Amino acid sequence: MHNEQFDGLIWQATPLFEAKRVWLLGASDVACEVAQLATHLGFLVTVADYDPAFLNEERFPGVQRILFEGGNFDDLQKYAADPADYVCVLTRGHMYDPQSCAWGVACNTHYVGMMGCKGKNETVHDLVIGLGATEEGWARIKRPIGLKFGAKTTDELAVSITAKLIDVRYKENYSEAARVQHENHLD
Hints:
By secondary structure, the protein is α/β, with parallel strands linked by helices. The chain has helices at residues 29-40, 97-106, 121-130, 135-140, 154-173, 176-186; strands at 21-25, 44-49, 64-67, 86-89, 111-114, 141-142. It has a six-stranded parallel sheet with strand order 3-2-1-4-5-6, sandwiched between helices. Helix 1 (29-40) crosses helix 5. The longest helix has 20 residues, at 154-173. The mean pLDDT is 91.
């Protein structure tokens, strides 16, 4: 509705459901874009990385930032995600992907997704299993992360990832019957 149509009235929007926490593990360029989009779409965003040159207020304004000590992701184990949280593994160079995936699975988060190509999955699989995850836990990790529609650039990948987060949130909050009814009305 347009406010000018109803002079003097103030409209208030109420969220349809509770905000979900999204952990962005890695302060990559894609993570910068995902943080902006996800925040705009009502997600609570936490970004974690070890490098202050990448993880700072300028690159990640208005979100929770966790800076790990020691030049690695070892401090990640000091944190616990809630089972309702979503985890997006978006590390620079993929060196800490196995540790990040294993953490998301160990915290039993609602969603874990990892950016990367199909070719690296076998190597990451072995490392994640070596860190204590089960085959069932590995199978829960969405790889590659995001909706598949040909995204290639940083911005396109961020849209793909954020669209998947919206899809997961939608499916989590609405019954199958409600989703079918809604989707039938879209035609």
